Structures are given as structure tokens and as C-alpha cells.
Amino acid sequence: MKLEGLADNYEKYGAVEAKLLPLGDSAVTVQLGETICRQTHDRVRQLAEHLERHRFPGMIEYVPAFLSVTVYFDPFEVLAGLGGLGGHTESSELADPLALVAGWLGDQLAKLEDAAKSMPRVTEIPVCYGGELGPDLPEVAAAHGLSEQEVIEIHASADYLVYMLGFAPGFAYLGGLPQRIATPRRQTPRISIPAGTVGIAGDQTGVYPIATPGGWQLIGKTPEPLFLPDAMPPTLLRAGDIVRFRPISREEFDSREAALR
Amino acid sequence: MSMIIVKPGLLTTVQDLGRYGAQQFGVIVGGAMDAFALRIANLLVGNDESAAGLEMTMLGPEIYFAEPALISVCGGDLSPRLNDRELPLWKTVVAPEGSVLRFGPTRQGCRAYLAVAGGVDAPVKMNSRSTYLRAGIGGWEGRALHKGDRLPVGAPATASLALASLLADEAQADGVAFSRWSVAPDLLPSYEANPEVRAVAGQELALFEEESAERFFAEAFKVRTDSDRMGYRLSRDGEGLRLREKRELISSAVTFGTVQVPPDGQPIVLMADRQTTGGYPKIAQVASVDWPLLAQTNLGGTVRFRTVSLREAQRLYLTRENGIRTLRSGLERMQASGNGRV
């Protein structure tokens, strides 16, 4: 059985190489690379920012990920909009909204330029490490023959890049965890991890925005809310941001948390 | 105007057509599992298709209408009764002041939708009134309905008032009225206890062993009892579905009807409360026209997947949407002419 796609291989659209893969009858994934790297991330950001400013009739929204941007649309509206404007047939036997969307996306990809990169936003996240807020810190330290203080210093010394948001509202997939403190997940996942908890899983680190089950090694907690349902955008972090963690004392944690209530 | 929840049922939530525009921030779409049924229920009471209604799961609630209301129940058949009368699905219904809507045994499907003229007036969070249970936001206080909840209902549109006046002639002695008009049977999805759903190739179908891919499109899968609004966990006897070679995928966007296969080889179909992105290989994507069939498949039921081309999936979608627009314009013509005989 063959994968029925719009393009089996990467095609050139101006300076951009991309593969357009249907995600069913009402979405298309634009894949921009094969490995997680800065270059592909920048392309993803470029396309996402372009789609923020340019939409086609029937476009619903787009979801950027590590290597791709997926665009959701209403085929009926696409046909009425792009189909009508493009002078395509109105017969539903021949109608192909997916092809219309792919054509539009191809035109937009060709327009992407290597514009000068804007400065990323830098967001500092205060974290109270260890103790009952980070119960796995001793284990993480022991696994690497480090002291707890060393793990904290290593974790808080790095600049992290937000590759994408997903998994939970406001959850950022961060790149840049120093290999020296990369730690496998726990054997048995916890049933509920409180919102704000900072963890390590393999070579990833992240902050749980809402209470969820999970197998991450928990090393601390931030009093800062990451999911802001009453704001737009509803999240503290956005794709492309740089994140830094700043160690705070338990007293500072408690007083910040109290102030937010 | 308000509705009072006398008994909450198993899982009754406020839902609209979902929360769009914030998936890029990791916010799930949610919304009605059977969006078709909610859209039709809304049209039948003169609402906007996207108005909020109630999704009622398996064991329906008991609802008291303190004031007269124009309502419609669509989707799964949970034996609805209005006062002492059986309430027909897919119709416009007048519930006079003091009416009680109850549900009985599940006859078909597992999710019924109640629309009320004016819509359930829950607060809007991130462009939607849908309940997002896991985050505890949206809908009614971010949770399933409880006994004693009093849900406010918005002001009915002119279209709703026109439909109500067309129904005045049909009123029975107790004030209850059921419309003669209904939905053309060929517009309804072919709801079944053990449906066959049409699906196109998933983005990673080619990564699966030939035999696994063939089995996936040939055999029946059971819907496990730990399935929920987030996804249906499927299982079948024998070996799981296998990749040609073991590999880690990099997360990308997923949608309603995406069938992904975790390492244990037992597929999961993603449903309304799915996460925005996923990292398991996607073997298939259910055509959107058949999402309602999945939504109405009960725990313990079986699902089969039949492969169709993308062209066919799109054609089916457009035919369904044309049908919904025909229904909408039919209702609008009736409201304008004041003639309810169809």
C-alpha cells in the first residue's frame, strides 16, 4: 500500500525545500526538514509568521512543530474562495480543495525570504529547586555523580530554545539541556504532577503547565503560571523564545505564589 | 431563561464546535464529539450552527425547563422523553414551561446532543464555550454538569421565534409540539453499533510492514473500555501492528480521526480532546465525513477501517456539507414563508 500524498519527495519552492503531506481531507503538513536543528526551526518560524499575516479563504489555523507546519482548513470554504477566484470547476466530482491549498502554500513558500532574524524574546522562569517541590533532584544528582547544587547551577546556566508548544497548553519543548544532567524518565510515571513543576526527561527539560500524569524527573517548581486561559496568546512561552531558569529560595517561591493568588 | 439540571447523567458537558485558533499554543480543540449532530440540532432550533449545547453520554441527564423552550435532540438515541411522551430525534420541539426532559436506555450510539434556542450561554474562553475537562476551563465552571446547575440560555434569534410560531398549530393539550419537518434520511451518517469507517493513508503508513498495513484495513478492532473523549484505544487479538524498522518519530500535528500506533502495536484513534501534536507513527486518517460514526461507537463495540482515496474523502465531505446547507436554506425558506408543511 502506497502513501497517497501530494509530494513523495522534497520539492523546491523558490529558495525553500519542502514536502507537502495531506493530514486527511482537511489539513496539510508542510515538512521543512528531517532533523531537529536551528536551520529547520528558523524555516518553521518563517512560515508560521508568514501564515500569521497571510491567510487563504477557508483557512482555520496552523500548528508549527519541530520540522513542520500543519495548516487546517474547511474544504467547502476553500472551494468557494480559492476555487472561485482561481476559475476552477465548480463540479464537486472534480473539486480538489487539497490541491488548491497545496498550490497556495507552494506560492507562499516561494515567497519566504531569508529575512534578517528578529531578536528572540528572552523569558526568565524563576525556579525553586529541590526539596518537596523537586523530589527527584537527589536522584538526578546521584545519577551523574554531582551535588544537588551543581545540578541546579548547570540547569540554570543554559539558554534554552522553545522549539514548539504541544502536549499540554503552554508546554514548551525546550532544546539545549546540557548533556551532563540528561537523565532517563522514571520507571513508573506519577499519577499527577502539579502545574509549575520543572522536570528532566532524557535530553529534554520542561515545565508542566497544568497538572498531568507523567514520568519526568522532577527537580523544582516555578510559581509563574505558564498557561493563561484569559490572555491571548494564552501562554507565557511562545515558539522561538529563549528561556532561562533562575534559582529562587523557598521564601521567594512562597511569596510570589501568594502574590499570584 | 435557564435550564436546571435535576440529574446530571454519566457525563454531561457544555460543548460547541470546538476551540480553534490556539492549537499552536498547545490548547486542544475539544468541542462536540459528534459535531454533525450538534450542528443539526442547532439549525433545527434556529441557532447558529456553532452555538453551545449539551453533550450527554450514555446515561442521559434529567433537565427541567422553568420557561418554555424550543429544543432539539440529535445524535445517539438515548431514549429521550419529554414529560410523558417519547421525544423524536432530529426534529424541532416545543417544551412548554415546567417540562422535564429525561433519558432512558441507549438504543443507538452513545452521545446525544441537546440544542436550545438561544444556545447555552456559558462564558467564552479562548473563542469557545466548550468544556476542557483536563484543564478545568470553559463550559460550565470547567467541569461536567452537577445536580442543581442552572444553565443560562441566550436570547432566541428571530429564526427561532419564526420556527416556534410555525409549531404553534402542532401543539398538543399539554403544550408539547413536535415538528413535522425533520432531516432528510440520506443526510444522516449511517450510525451503527459496529461501524466501518472510511480512511485515507496516514502520513507514516509506508513505515509499517506490508502485512500490518493490510491487516489494519481488513480486520475489526475493539474499542477498549479505557477509551474516552481524548482517544479510542483499539485492540485486536494476535500480534500488534509493526513497523518495518524501529524508529523514533519527531512530534508533529495530529487531528480528529488520526490513527496512531504506539510501540505496543495497538492503534489509538484520536478524538475531540486529543493533544495538538503527537509523536507516534500515523497509519491512517479517518475521513472527516465518518467522524460522527466514531463518536457514536460505544465502548466494547468494534470499528473497521476501509481505505478510500483522498479524492473520494473530499467528495464525501463536500456532499455532506452541501446537504447541511440545503437543510439550512430549507429551514430559512420555511421561516420566511411562515409555512411549516414540508
Radius of gyration of chain B: 21 Å
Spatial strand order of the main sheet of chain B: 13-20-17-18-15-14-21
What's the helical proportion of residues of chain A? 25-40%
The CATH class assignment of the largest domain in chain A is Mainly Beta
Class from secondary-structure proportions of chain A? alpha+beta
Under CATH, the homologous superfamily of the largest domain in chain A reads Cyclophilin-like
Low-confidence runs of chain A (pLDDT<50, min 5 residues)?
Answer: 85-90
DSSP strand tally of chain A: 14
Proportion of helical residues of chain B: 10-25%
CATH topology of the largest domain in chain A: Cyclophilin
Task: Characterize the largest beta sheet of chain B: strand count, sense, and whether it forms a barrel.
Answer: 7 strands, mixed, barrel
Share of residues in strands of chain B: 25-35%
How many discrete domains of chain A? 2
Kindly report the average pLDDT value of chain A.
Answer: 91
User: What's the order of the H and E elements of chain B?
Assistant: EEHEEEEEEEEEHEEHEEEEEEEHEH
Task: Give an overview in words.
The complex is a heterodimer of chains A (261) and B (342). Chain A is of the alpha+beta class and 261 residues long. Chain A folds into two domains: 11-111, Gyrase A, domain 2 (2-Layer Sandwich); 122-260, Cyclophilin, CATH 2.40.100.10. Helices cover 27% and strands 28% of the residues of chain A. In chain A, the strands form three sheets. A seven-stranded mixed β-sheet of chain A has the order 8-7-14-6-13-10-11. In chain A, strands 1-2-3-5-4 form a five-stranded antiparallel β-sheet. In chain A, helix 2 (75-85) packs across helix 3. Chain B is of the alpha+beta class and 342 residues long. Chain B folds into two domains: 2-183 and 329-337, no CATH class; 196-308, Cyclophilin, CATH 2.40.100.10. Chain B has helices spanning 35-44, 158-167, 210-216, 291-295, 310-337, and strands at 2-7, 11-15, 53-57, 62-65, 69-77, 81-82, 85-86, 91-95, 99-102, 108-116, 150-152, 177-182, 196-201, 220-223, 231-235, 252-253, 258-260, 268-270, 277-278, 282-286, 302-307. In chain B, the strands form four sheets. A seven-stranded mixed β-barrel of chain B has the order 13-20-17-18-15-14-21. In chain B, strand 17 and strand 18 (268-270) form a beta hairpin. In chain B, helix 2 (158-167) crosses helix 5 (310-337). The radius of gyration of chain B is 21 Å and the shape is elongated. The two termini of chain B are 30 Å apart. The mean pLDDT of chain B is 95. Chains A and B meet through strand 3, strand 4, strand 5 and helix 2 of A and helix 3, strand 16 and helix 5 of B.
